[in-house]
């Protein structure tokens, strides 16, 4: 027999359980189902099937224990479940036992597809082609001492980000904004324009009405052709919304381990945390900060640290996951618990400001409150001097904005304020960008250089300092 045929047979046999253990439902409270009869066979993260009265099954996951009883949460509706209904748990032997948390058989054929967190197609294009390797959905980040360093400078295709939050391959950024400020549009621009091999987009708790609008209008055929989109809408059970984040990381890790540069876009981490809160409270975990149980803030770094550079290969190469995690800040409070925790884990942050959006400038990035921790090392000295001067001009104008609007400032009183008044419109024009417009790194810095060329400021010019020396 051919080796490939034997490998297929072994893989098929490995997926067949040796036996089916059965238990029964004893109670159902809120979102949690209490199961008796599984004894010590099941562990946290194992998948079981809850049987309805009509014989249909609901996939569920063990999320906790109380004495000899297991607590499960379903991936679907609990309608039709009753006390005494059967619970089925597949039992595997030895190394065939699947890792807790489920798995996905990812392949390159998933590119261009829309799927749910369990790896089922949602786009009506037929079944997904299976991969040769099954990947666990939940896994640990790569060993910190074996990971590659960040890669070269990454062209994001968005002028404001290329200039003021310049990134490297493998970097992780947070996108902090309230609702309706343009997060989805900015993420679609990144999915289309970023210089990467594949984009993995996770829509966690997205409005069902907006999924098609995002895919067809914002992402478009060009963006979808190089993307894998994972969707769990807002009406999905909390387990599905949580799983959308884990599944996206598993898919991105597959492409990273293939040596590719993957872009991960997740909208949003806040809804992931809200799903974790619902799960934790359902099993009796005590609420802490703003109702979030402690397990939420323990799980966040485990998720976010999975993005980034991969393990260095023998030839010195490594795949990368460059990631942008959006955070839906409640009440536009940039210091709410989830935002504060995410900001401390990632390598930089973007802040979208509602007041800027109201002026009609998109993307509505607040340059003065956004930063990338890799900027000093990935831009040239001249480029850093250029962005520092632009920041200083915007900061000067922001400080004097009220006096300028009220007419209390007299032109000529301060040379720096006069410069800020003259150059700010040109800088704002550079920061403004249409959603279907793409701008490379070189074009971005050229545009800013032209905007600042109207009034040369000798003391801040690196070129002038070199000429004097």
From TrEMBL:
Q: Which residues form the AAA+ ATPase domain?
A: 169-357
What would be one Pfam family of this protein?
A: ATP-synt_ab_N
- Where can this protein be found? Cytoplasm
Q: Do the record's keywords include Phosphoprotein? A: no
Keyword Ion transport belongs to the record: yes
Q: Which UniProt keywords apply?
A: ATP synthesis, ATP-binding, Bacterial flagellum biogenesis, Bacterial flagellum protein export, Cell projection, Cilium, Cytoplasm, Flagellum, Hydrogen ion transport, Ion transport, Nucleotide-binding, Protein transport, Translocase, Transport
Question: Please, one GO biological process term?
Answer: protein secretion by the type III secretion system
Membrane spanning segments where? Answer: none
Q: Which PROSITE patterns match?
A: ATPASE_ALPHA_BETA
Superkingdom of the source species? Bacteria
Q: What is its EC number?
A: 7.1.2.2
Q: What does this protein do?
A: Probable catalytic subunit of a protein translocase for flagellum-specific export, or a proton translocase involved in local circuits at the flagellum.
Q: Which NCBIfam families match?
A: FliI_clade3 (TIGR03498), fliI_yscN (TIGR01026)
Provide the protein name: Flagellum-specific ATP synthase
Task: Please name the source species.
Answer: Acetobacter aceti
Q: Organism classification, top ranks?
A: Bacteria, Pseudomonadati, Pseudomonadota, Alphaproteobacteria, Acetobacterales
Q: Which gene encodes it?
A: fliI
């Amino acid at each position: 027999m051919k080796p490939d045929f034997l490998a297929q047979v072994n893989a098929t046999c490995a997926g067949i359980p040796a036996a089916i253990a059965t238990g029964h439902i004893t109670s159902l409270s809120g979102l949690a189902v209490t199961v008796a009869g599984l004894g010590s066979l099941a562990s946290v993260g194992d998948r079981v099937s809850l049987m309805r009265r009509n014989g249909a099954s609901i996939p569920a996951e063990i999320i906790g224990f109380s004495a000899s009883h297991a607590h499960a949460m379903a991936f679907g509706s609990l309608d039709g479940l009753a006390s005494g209904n059967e619970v089925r748990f597949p039992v595997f032997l030895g190394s065939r036992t699947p890792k807790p948390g489920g798995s996905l058989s990812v392949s390159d054929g998933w590119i261009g597809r829309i799927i749910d967190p369990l790896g089922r197609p949602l786009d009506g294009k037929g079944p997904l082609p299976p991969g040769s390797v099954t990947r666990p959905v939940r896994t640990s980040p790569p060993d910190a001492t074996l990971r590659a360093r960040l890669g070269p400078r990454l062209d994001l295709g968005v002028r404001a980000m290329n200039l003021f939050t310049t990134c490297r391959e493998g970097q992780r950024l947070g996108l902090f904004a309230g609702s309706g400020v343009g997060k989805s549009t900015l993420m679609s621009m990144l999915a289309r324009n970023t210089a990467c091999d594949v984009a993995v987009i996770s829509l966690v708790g997205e409005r069902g009405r907006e999924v098609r609008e995002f895919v067809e209008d914002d992402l478009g055929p060009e963006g979808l052709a190089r993307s894998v989109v994972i969707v769990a809408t807002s009406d999905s059970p909390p387990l599905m919304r949580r799983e959308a984040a884990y599944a996206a990381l598993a898919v991105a890790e597959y492409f990273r381990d293939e040596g590719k540069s993957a872009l991960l876009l997740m909208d949003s981490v806040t809804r992931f945390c809200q799903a974790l809160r619902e799960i934790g409270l359902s099993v009796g975990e005590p609420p802490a900060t703003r109702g979030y149980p402690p397990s939420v803030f323990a799980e966040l770094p485990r998720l976010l640290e999975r993005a980034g550079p991969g393990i260095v290969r023998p030839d010195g190469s490594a795949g990368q996951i460059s990631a942008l995690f959006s955070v839906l800040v409640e009440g536009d409070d940039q210091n709410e618990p989830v935002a504060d925790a995410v900001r401390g884990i990632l390598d930089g942050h973007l802040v979208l400001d509602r007041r800027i959006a109201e002026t009609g400038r998109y993307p509505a990035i607040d340059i003065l409150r956004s930063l990338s921790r890799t900027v000093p090392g990935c831009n040239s000295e001249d480029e850093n001097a250029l962005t520092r001067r632009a920041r200083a001009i915007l900061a000067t104008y922001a400080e004097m904005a009220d006096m300028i609007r009220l007419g209390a400032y007299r032109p000529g009183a301060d040379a720096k304020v006069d410069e800020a008044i003259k150059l700010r419109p040109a800088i704002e024009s550079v920061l403004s960008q249409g959603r279907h417009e793409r701008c490379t790194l070189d074009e971005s810095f050229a545009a800013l250089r032209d905007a600042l060329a109207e009034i040369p400021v000798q003391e801040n010019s690196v070129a002038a300092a070199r000429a004097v020396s």
